[in-house]
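Lab notes, practical 5.
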Amino acid sequence: MKKVMTTVCALILLCMPFISGTAAAAIADRIVAVIGNEVVLQSELDERVLMTHMQYPESKGDKTIPEKVLNSLIDQKVILAKAKIDSTGIDDAALEGIVGERMKVLASRFSSREEMESKFGKSSLVIRRELRQEIKNQQLIESLRRKKLAGVTVTHEEAMAFFEANKSRLPVIPEGVSVSQILKYPDVSAESRSGAKAMIGNVQAELKGGADFGALAKKYSQDPGSAQLGGDLGYVQKGELIQSFENAAYGLKEGQVSDIVETRYGFHLIQLLNKEVNSLHVRHILIAFDRSRSDAAGTIGQLRSIRADVLAGKATFAEMAGKYSDDPVSARLGGAILSASSKNVFQLSTLRPQLREVIGTLKQSGDISEPVKVDPPQGDSFYAIFRLNEKIGAHQLNPRQDYALLEEIVLENKRQRLYEEWLQELRKEVTVRKSDV
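Output from the prediction step:
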């Protein structure tokens, strides 16, 4: 049960002080707030309100938005002015990736760079620099908030007291399901494998000839999520990568590049940037397999055989998932599909239509679907069978069924209260004056 102010603060931190030179000239500036040695001008407030309305059209009818935006601006400036923030925790590569994506979205609204620059009354380089600083400020504040509240916990007594005081206002939990899967990608043809192997061999030769890894990733890598970041995958927790990729990465020294590594996606060259006990910072170059000529019939047959063995009691679904599933995360959990809930329960309404339809055919716990082809929004198609672990009807949130969710609500409520108390303490150290808006 997050407070409204949390959402508003998050929205405002996403905004940028963008406005055209023409529009800025039309605003009669006045000071609407003073925070220590800094001020908030009417033009800055108007820009933030405008950006909020652009990003969230439903906010246009809310007459309290200017006041909420101003309060969030004041809080941001107070934190940045008074809190001791260590900026070394910011991942510059990830930051540049976010800035790049935001700039793409912004540029897509205009027919040309010139039109965008004319509208904002500043060059694209200045726009990018201001955007980068704003996002960095946002990350710094969020990092500090997490650090400040890291040790906050709630007791069973606190959770139950909150429940008793707020039971009539707690949400109705929609119908939900817990589901496991065994996922298989069709085998690729020999021609596809040999073609990809030849291409990655050529990239490896360029790398050995002295070419820059990041430049080669941008030029050749077929991983759309990382190619334009020089192949950078950021920090990845141990166990989240495909086993062959992870094994190769952990075997490297910092800065070292692997030999050619094969996964179900294709062939990779991997460079280790940093290694910790339970995480890796790596970048890679991927030459993907062409799956247009894959063995779908063989994959369906294998899944049907697995299903038959489970239903006959020859093995459990969890055992088969651990042995055969191509999804490393759910395979380690016996096929269980992760959700934010500790019981891994999904609301039916949140599932994609195809999966919702498949799950709808399963009537009781233990039922297993026939193999189905799944076409995800991104990535390659695959085949899978699904097991219904549990079906939970719609009900009012209660501690017996939903204690983990109740605890999460109470914890977030407590964190927000402590965060606001901390902000009030910071405000006492800074002179804050504001005008009516």
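Observations recorded by the TA: The radius of gyration is 26 Å. Confidence is low (pLDDT under 50) at residues 1-27.
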